Amino acid sequence: xxxxxxxxxxxxxxxxxxxxxxxxxxxxxxxxxxxxxxxxxxxxxxxxxxxxxxxxxxxxxxxxxxxxxxxxxxxxxxxxxxxxxxxxxxxxxxxxxxxxxxxxxxxxxxxxxxxxxxxxxxxxxxxxxxxxxxxxxxxxxxxxxxxxxxxxxxxxxxxxxxxxxxxxxxxxxxxxxxxxxxxxxxxxxxxxxxxxxxxxxxxxxxxxxxxxxxxxxxxxxxxxxxxxxxxxxxxxxxxxxxxxxxxxxxxxxxxxxxxxxxxxxxxxxxxxxxxxxxxxxxxxxxxxx
Length: 289
Prior knowledge:
The chain is an alpha/beta fold.
């Protein structure tokens, strides 16, 4: 039986909620870390790496509950240190990010055209790639790809094509995660094999369609409310015999607040994940067992 775990994007608060949810499910006797395949996008690439690397989820949750100003770069989950600036507070960078999202959401623009436009925006706004990689380094607790089947989504800035990076892709783990988290207009695209890659979230959805061949499929998507139909279509396309979409409930969304990059909301978001896990444990157990 093949179990696949898909983790979607959702910023700094999405990382915290992901970790709270996974830890809470583990406490309830439903460890999703035993998935045969883990597919991560953007924030989900960070969490997927932690899970695949076997990081202690209890310690990860404790770090997320640490106030943002108390986190240190030596903490693997110190997202307040490595996180990009807030889209709402970043001035021109925030404007570029919002413009990119508007292009992707415009139904009158063909998908690949929209992606290439956003890719051009990302390149035009590119900052210091080396400095960005160093900011991301504290988020990754291991240097090498885990033995687990970890797959990370990115999008090519030049042609808009999405690509799945894994241990055999030629990318370092740091490069893969940083590229998947490189929000257009906020962080510079990452160079891998001579090409520049940006946030895997540009492909929209949650990448559940990449779970083809799964018998059991759990999709955790912090931003499902923005693209629920697409995600469900992806899940159907995977052909999984049993599947479940987990999204934030009203209380979790309130915990996130209006700015997904606001590290001050990590404690509330991780607690929302822990609480929601208790509500969902039986449903997840039925799918995963």
